[in-house]
């Protein structure tokens, strides 16, 4: 739960650093992108954020999660592709892959009322 609490706290800090207090009431929700390889429980992040926001200037703010697909690049042919599964080799040439994304948590969108 420590990792999830840290993510929830960073969302609060993001809001406080990027918006003026008079704008807080205009924010409806924050959409958080979470890579498929991230080991974090979305329910625990939401629970932690609900506790944190009670003592903030934006107690009604919601958070929503979007899970990003895996994005790979072939080390041999350079082709990029996304996948629902965990590829081992490039489907185009059979080469080795490198993960381009899906191992991060980030603010994807801020939705205003």
From TrEMBL:
Q: Which UniProt keywords apply?
A: Metal-binding, Nickel, Zinc
Q: Any idea which GO molecular function terms this record carries?
A: nickel cation binding; zinc ion binding
Q: Name one GO biological process term.
A: protein maturation
The record's annotation in PANTHER family points to: HYDROGENASE MATURATION FACTOR HYPA
Protein known as: Zn finger protein HypA/HybF (Possibly regulating hydrogenase expression)-like protein
Give the classification, highest ranks: Bacteria, Thermotogati, Thermotogota, Thermotogae, Kosmotogales
